[in-house]
Specification:
The structure is a homotetramer.
Chain A lengths: L14 H8 L5 H17 L3 E6 L1 H5 L2 H10 L5 E4 L1 H11 L5 E2 L6 H6 L2 E4 L2 E4 H21 L2 E3 H11 L6 H7 L4 E2 L7 H12 L4 E3 H10 L7 E6 L2 H13 L3 E8 L13 H7 L2 E11 L2 H18 L7
Parallel strand pairs in A: 1-2, 1-9, 2-7, 6-8, 9-10, 10-11
Antiparallel strand pairs in A: 3-5, 4-5
């Protein structure tokens, strides 16, 4: 029997202590600590870790945290949407995103050339910067070869960047492949299209990329997933794990619920019916906005992994 | 001033009367009628209608309703995820999906080879049938040409089907292109990969498909969207409309909310900051599961369009 | 095995046919039909029906539908919050509520003396009308006796009204008690307080009302609940049923989910751990705004009950 | 312009640093820091603080945190539901609540006499202990006087307890009134009813309690609210503040959204249309489970208030 314990504030308390305390509080705070413990086990077991997120999280300040995690070897395979790629590159080239309001006047924003994502803003200037940068990159890629698997292309782009806080940069330098199953669904899609108009033999090979994600892990590997949000990022990772025998560990952090049958809200339990997650796996689901829940669960896991000498935090 | 009116049951009442009555009730019932009216205006104005949905809706019995809508010319461009393609083909070849329970025993289901999507079930047998069918189709496609834009490939597949209730079939016969920006994110992705292993010059050209979606409408067209659920389907449609000058009409039906900055929960207001939806457009958002809300809003719209002689319901 | 069936529109289709069709669609549409069937069984079995709702639903046009249901003997005990009482009385005295916008300018509304509830508006004038009316009513009640159980007081008030569409009126005339466990939590609370200032021996006896709700049904009665929304209305009904041996039938219609441990989101399954709902009961839960889901489920049930001659719809 | 900043983990980081860092991340993490800042301003300004919560939070380990906050003078008026009272008393008498699972077997739990609230469990034994305790307390109250306003009764009960971690105990000793507008809606209601059966002149005066809450603050006081969850607790506090001129500060922490017109999901903006919150007030809303969000926001506020010497944390 584990009992509810009264939480207390102590001056200067650490995140580690708070999340540990939350494990005896109730409701999602208990699930949060389960997520931390599942991440710890995943890493300790030597599992290959699939890390998936949606682009709005890269618009947010989680971007730098994600790149730090890659450097700390907390991710072996990344799956995301194309906005993540675009916004990581903008930031790597010095563009800044603005903190705004959910209740902004959107028509006024539009007149000013400012685009809203929840309470964050990206200016048209940042998209213009991206355009200038990506054109040159595509030209260089094309000069190397005409036909690119998406993850190979993203690795090359990562190697062209010079920003320690960039996800693409850290992934490229740490040999972590980035998969992006809907690579054309963003500004990059438009620039790829423009480039192909001039260079019809330029090919983005999404089918070859499926081969890449399958060979990024093997049936023999223990496999874990940390899925932030839902959509194709989450689905693509668990699909490739299904083909490779299923996941041993799964942490889902999301705001979606299962009642409408969506992929985003699909539970770890549902995933077991498919064999996406093994029957005897360790799983945790935390319901809430990941800009709050993920740093908490992950900081707690990092502190423990650091104490155990499993991650190198120098 | 429009006032709340008391709703009353009358024996044998029609959907049309109920939804009309709901327009004076409150909360989402009011938004539902707004959605109906926006669909009616969209169609009356001659706008090109983008119709987007996620694959779980095709697992459900909405599949036949969607194909009926295509036949009734209520959709000019479709954007969806690859599960929709797979499940439409399974059904066209006689496979049946089973009604189950949200609280099913998923480990038992797994042992029986049955895969759960909310309260619906798809057996492994249906995936095997899909495998058998798609292999032959890919071979035929390959014999025609080596390099395929996704929407062109899906049209060819539609022409190979013989099922009036199939989305692919009706879309192909009514010249409605189907876009699927994450074409490899499903069983089809695996079969494309297997096929390419044997036929390395087989190419699925997602960049060319971006050209196709851009040319499916023009800047001069009035444009509307009916977006069911979120994710890449919704985003891809509004992105292509943004490039072509923005949408004049938008109906969003979803369970997602905006507080976590997700695309699925992004509002029509937020879309205006980007120019995805024009400042002076007609918009409606209905919060709720589309298996309930969409048939209501659309049946009401169809009845009115039928009365006005705008759709041909013979 | 029950299979998914493709939904189709047929011209002039009835609500009854649509909801029947939805039973083979998927996700919440299936649960909607389960709700209808549970309501039908509840009524056919002769169960005492607890009907609970929150005040925003009485602000909406569901008010007239609720009063119609009472007249049709579809409710034996009502539990609600005090706003329902206030707004039912305002409407009975001719006040009208206005249809507004979720995105209204609330500071402007405040300046105009208009109060917002989602996309509905109530003017200060309606509250003034309520004040004028209720003062006289309290005086009459006081002249009859000094100490009132809440449900007895609400019955007396119902008998003072002259409006067929009023919930209080129909409940009083059909001997359906209305319980309101938080009777002071609204404008009525303020007027009770003002009245008691002048008449200190005026007592609202909430403890006596607990006796009333317990004796409104017995352990031997079959008992069912239709709970719209959550909060104290839902809890009070299931608490009193727990004491009387538990519910045989339960339909929950709500937008709340269980992850935060709230009463509003508590499931029928959780209720079984308490004995609030019997282990072998018939239950259904529909997730969505009740202004849409409840009329659908209930109209379908009424049509069937009418066909079977169980309700008298003359 | 405030810009998004990349969040980074530093070994041993404090909650204070993390939440400060979150202020530049995005989405709800930004709102969390706004909540902290609003709480700080509320306290610095000398506002009377209304603190409202639902009973499930007292089932959880937040109970001890709430009592600590009362001791630290962070609450001047409390509004809650009756389950909070019951469970605080059980805990004060040594009962323990158990950490369970959302997916528990509820029929098995029922057979074992164990009641589930989300992932927490309360045994029947705890309810029996409560019964034994409360009977004696009611007898003592009755011997003092026959007619009790709820908050006066709860203060007396608090004075009978001997537990530093008890909310009732700390509230009684710090002269913080506890209001409970639906005092009969729980096991206490049943025991009040049993007691009144034997002692018909025993009266719980809820109308007098309305007088008490109105006089707990005045129009001249600056007023703030920290509302955790929704329902009658939240509504009762803002109603009484409306009558006293409206709130100057408001922090809402909830999982409910506004689309269905519920009180729980009603926004701070909507509250302005009523005058519940003043037009020029400081407000913050955080969407998420309060077992995670509230400790974060409040610990950050306590650290700052401690640094400024505004709270006495000795």
């Amino acid at each position: 029997m584990v009992y509810v314990k009264d939480l207390k504030w102590t001056k200067g308390m650490s995140v580690d202590d708070l999340v540990k305390g939350m494990s005896s509080v109730g409701f999602q705070s208990i699930e949060l600590e389960k997520a931390s413990q599942t991440i710890i086990k995943m890493k300790e077991s030597g599992a290959k870790i699939f890390f998936t997120f949606t682009s709005n999280m890269v618009t947010s300040g989680l971007r730098g945290f994600f790149s730090q995690l890659i450097k700390l070897k907390m991710a072996d395979v990344i799956v995301t949407t194309v906005g993540s790629i675009e916004e990581d590159i903008m930031r790597a080239y010095g563009e800044q995103f603005i903190i705004g309001e959910f209740n902004a006047d959107d028509i006024e924003l539009h007149e000013k050339g400012t685009n809203r994502i929840g309470n964050l803003l990206i200016t048209n200037k940042s998209y213009e910067k991206f355009e200038n940068v990506i054109r040159g990159m595509l030209q260089k890629l094309y000069e190397k070869q005409k036909r690119w698997a998406v993850s190979d292309m993203l690795k090359e782009i990562g190697l062209m960047l010079e920003d320690n806080d960039s996800i693409l940069y850290q992934a490229a330098r740490n040999n972590v492949p980035i998969f992006c199953p809907a690579i054309t669904d963003g500004a990059l899609g438009f620039h790829l299209f423009m480039f192909q108009q001039k260079n019809p033999d330029f090919i983005v090979d999404v089918v070859k990329d499926f081969s890449n994600i399958l060979s990024s892990t093997s049936i023999d590997d223990r496999k874990g997933i940390i899925a932030l949000g839902g959509g194709v990022s989450k689905h693509h990772a668990i699909l490739s794990c299904l083909i490779n025998g299923g996941l041993d560990y799964a942490v889902y952090m999301t705001t979606s619920r299962e009642f409408s049958g969506s992929m985003s809200g699909a539970t770890t339990r549902e995933a077991k019916s498919w064999g996406k997650i093994k029957d005897n796996s360790d799983v945790a689901t935390v319901i809430g906005d990941v800009t709050i829940t993920f740093p908490l669960a992950m900081v707690r896991a990092l502190e423990e992994l650091s104490r155990k000498g499993i991650i190198n935090d120098k």
